[in-house]
Amino acid sequence: MKKKIALVTGGFTGESVISLKSAAVVEKTIDRALYEVFTIYIYPGDWYHLTASGEKIAVDLNDFSLQLGDQKITFDGVFTILHGSPGEDGKLAGYFDLLGIPYTTCDQLTSAITMNKGYTKAIVQTIPELQVARSMQLFEQEPTAAARIQEELQLPLFIKPNNGGSSIGMSKVNKAEDLQEAIAKAFKEDDQVLIEEFISGREFTIGVFRSKGKIITLPFTEISTDNEFFDFEAKYQGKSVEVTPAVCSDEMAEKIRNAAAGIYAVFNCRGVVRMDFIYNTDQEKPYLLEINTVPGQSAASIIPQQVAAMGLVLSDFYSMLIDDALETVKK
């Protein structure tokens, strides 16, 4: 008998447009011989499913169910492909935990911590051989003078929303006079801002997932762009070059894979997670940039590239994620 799976998309932030693109790929690719899929759109105050005829059916939030005619649909599991809040910050995970419905992403605590870049950096510093850039965390209710930032950190700097994603609201600052404008831009997206020193090196991104109790790293990707950094345009509008698998030494590859697997274990991650690194070639050490617990699955996204490079069919990969979620709940 087919498992009933809710494919959750939409969201409360500007990343919702990316969520819809990712969900379209998953919806088209997921194995319909194994799963009956119902796409659920989540927006502020508006959770619904669209039938094949275009009828909008509200989700019963008491038990996350649908009423389709005389049939009540309850779900065996949830495939979450909702970037940003509430899918990536732990809110949905907490809701599904209360209802006892398994889902394909990290749990509430892991999602909440990794969504906060500042808190993530504090934890990963405990992992041997892993580096993080020097940084400051700003809070909207406690303004920080640009002079103090320049005293503690060296230009160039990256300014980013602390809880944001898809590089929305992010800037690279090379001159002190541009600092306040970049901070204001980031505060438009979040009430916390992270300021990090620029780390030179090669940029890599790697997907990690778990299947049958084993942590598995996907073939990782090297990213280069003529833009100042890997921004929204570079990510989603073809302004970058992505090489999968990345061409590098065995020693460098091992350090990146070990760091990624270690992070996945330390944070008790679930589902597929993508991690971004800068590998400083002078120090021969990887620097963690960020952890993405709901990585994109659109045609422009990196995880599908890495899955193909590993020799996996994307539909089988999605089945592995769903099966792991269902097995985790059984335990």
Give a concise summary:
The protein is of the alpha+beta class. It is built from ten helices and 17 strands.
Structural features:
single chain; 331 residues; alpha+beta; five-stranded mixed β-sheet; 10 helices; 17 strands; globular
Description:
With 331 residues, the protein is α+β, with helices and mostly antiparallel strands. The model has no long low-confidence stretch (mean pLDDT 89). The strands form 4 sheets. Strands 12, 13, 14, 15, 16 and 17 form a 6-stranded antiparallel beta sheet that branches. A 5-stranded mixed beta sheet has the order 4-3-2-1-7. A 4-stranded antiparallel beta sheet has the order 8-11-9-10, covered by helices on one side. Helices cover 31% and strands 27% of the residues. It is globular and about 65 Å long.
Order of helices and strands: EHEEEEEEHHHEHEEHEEEEHEHEEHH
Give the overall form. Answer: globular
Structural class, by secondary structure, is alpha+beta
Question: Nearest-angstrom radius of gyration?
Answer: 20 Å
How helix-rich are the residues, as a percent range? 25-40%
The low-confidence parts are: none
How many distinct helices? 10
Which whole number gives the mean pLDDT? 89
Q: What fraction of the residues are assigned to beta strands by DSSP? A: 25-35%
